[in-house]
Structure formats: structure tokens, C-alpha cells
């Protein structure tokens, strides 16, 4: 199985800083913006983005508590493939104290692929409130969309074959930061020989 690292820790940090600046610019500030990470890695990315937003705001002379705008949104029970996939224990949904009503919710995930996770996230958001707007930020967009969904903020576009697997590793979960592409056809080819 061939594997190659396409983003190193510095690349990931640079992408998250850029996304934080884009969120501020696109929303003309951070007032009324809520970041909701989609478990598992989207939650860690949301916390990092919130820290970057706080740092940028601090440089502008504004105070922002990163925890006050960050939450997590479990989409497990809103997926359309529950019958196909192995069951996964639902994670708690944590909404920041300000709620999501009339706020701009930025959904955060590690990889955008078919769009089905984001569709489930939109249903999950609707179950907890009525945001003014919903935006999407992803670290990696790998293409192969099955639904008409696109990200507003993308760290890196990585066009990939369907046979490839994009793995995002984060220090909070995996002990180190990296984005790795693994080609599963190598294994299948060797097994067939």
C-alpha cells in the first residue's frame, strides 16, 4: 500500500490561519459567528480555528474567548447511510452558550468528500436552532461530490481518485499533524497477483 504525506504540520497551521482570516473577512468580523466541529477531527480543527480567530482579534485590540464560540455537532443520527455503516456511538452535541439562533454557523470538518456528512450536519443544525446563515470550512476538499454542496473555506484542494483514502491526522487525536494519501489499489493489485 503506497502512502504519501501531502500536508505537514506547518502546512496545516498555515491553512488554518488563512481560513481564520477568510472567516473574519467574509463575515466582516466575528460578531455572531459560531464554530461547530463535526466529530471527530472537525472538533479539534474548530478549536484551533477559534484560537486563531482569538489571536487575530487580539491583534486588532478585541478580546475573544475561543471557547465561547466553539461547539461540536454530532451528525450520527442524521446520516442517510445508518443501515450501511457499522454503528458508531453518538457523540454529544455541545452548542456555545449564545446558541445558534440568528447566528452565522460555520461547520468545520477535516475532509469534504461526497457531501453526505455535511447534508447530515445541516439537518443536525436545524434540530438545535435556526441560524441566520450556515457556512462550511474544511481542511481538505478531495472532490467526488454526490450532493450539490461546496465549502466556503478550504485549506487545500486535493483532487484524488476514488480508490485513494485521505487521512487527516491531528496532534490532539493521533499525536502528530499530517494529511496522508493512501492508495488502496496497490493492496488490491498485490492481492490479485
Structural class: alpha/beta
- Indicate the CATH architecture: 3-Layer(aba) Sandwich
CATH class: Alpha Beta
Q: Alpha-carbon distance between the termini?
A: 14 Å
Tally of discrete structural domains: 1
Determine the number of helices (DSSP H or I, runs of at least 4 residues).
Answer: 5
The fold-level CATH name is: Rossmann fold
Rg over C-alpha atoms, rounded to the nearest angstrom: 17 Å
N-to-C series of helices and strands: EHEHEEHEEEHEH
Average pLDDT figure: 93
The major pleated sheet works out as: 5 strands, parallel
What amount of the residues lies in strands?
A: 25-35%
Net shape = globular
Low-confidence stretches: 189-193
Task: Give the beta-strand count.
Answer: 8
Catalytic activity: UMP + diphosphate = 5-phospho-alpha-D-ribose 1-diphosphate + uracil
Pfam family, one: Pribosyltran
Protein name: Bifunctional protein PyrR
InterPro entries: PRTase-like (IPR029057), PRTase_dom (IPR000836), PyrR (IPR023050), PyrR_bifunctional (IPR050137)
Main traits of this protein?
3-stranded antiparallel sheet; alpha/beta; 5-stranded parallel sheet; 5 helices; 193 residues; Rossmann fold; disordered C terminus
Description of the molecule:
With 193 residues, the protein is of the alpha/beta class. The chain has one domain: 3-Layer(aba) Sandwich (Rossmann fold), CATH 3.40.50. Helix content is 33%, strand content 25%. The chain has five helices and eight strands; from the N terminus they run βαβαββαβββαβα. The strands form two sheets. A five-stranded parallel beta sheet has the order 3-2-4-5-6, sandwiched between helices. It has a three-stranded antiparallel beta sheet with strand order 1-8-7. Helix 3 links the parallel strand 4 and strand 5. Helix 1 crosses helix 2. It is globular, with a radius of gyration of 17 Å. The C terminus is likely disordered. Belongs to the purine/pyrimidine phosphoribosyltransferase family. PyrR subfamily.
Amino acid at each position: 500500500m503506497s502512502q504519501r504525506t501531502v500536508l505537514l504540520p506547518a502546512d496545516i497551521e498555515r491553512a488554518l490561519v488563512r481560513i481564520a482570516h477568510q472567516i473574519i473577512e467574509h463575515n466582516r468580523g466575528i460578531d455572531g459567528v459560531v464554530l461547530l466541529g463535526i466529530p471527530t477531527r472537525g472538533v479539534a480543527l474548530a478549536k484551533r480555528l477559534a484560537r486563531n480567530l482569538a489571536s487575530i482579534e487580539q491583534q486588532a485590540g478585541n478580546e475573544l474567548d475561543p471557547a465561547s464560540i466553539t461547539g461540536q455537532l454530532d451528525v450520527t443520527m442524521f446520516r442517510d447511510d445508518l443501515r450501511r455503516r457499522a454503528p458508531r456511538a453518538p457523540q454529544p452535541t455541545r452548542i456555545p452558550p449564545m446558541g445558534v439562533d440568528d447566528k452565522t454557523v460555520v461547520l468545520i470538518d477535516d475532509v469534504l468528500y461526497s457531501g453526505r456528512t455535511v447534508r447530515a450536519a445541516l439537518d443536525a443544525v436545524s434540530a438545535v436552532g435556526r441560524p441566520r446563515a450556515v457556512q462550511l470550512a474544511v481542511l481538505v476538499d478531495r472532490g467526488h461530490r454526490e450532493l450539490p454542496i461546496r465549502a466556503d473555506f478550504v485549506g487545500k484542494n486535493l483532487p484524488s481518485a476514488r480508490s485513494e483514502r485521505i487521512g487527516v491526522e491531528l496532534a490532539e487525536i493521533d499525536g502528530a499533524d499530517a494529511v496522508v494519501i493512501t492508495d488502496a489499489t496497490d493492496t488490491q493489485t498485490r492481492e490479485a497477483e
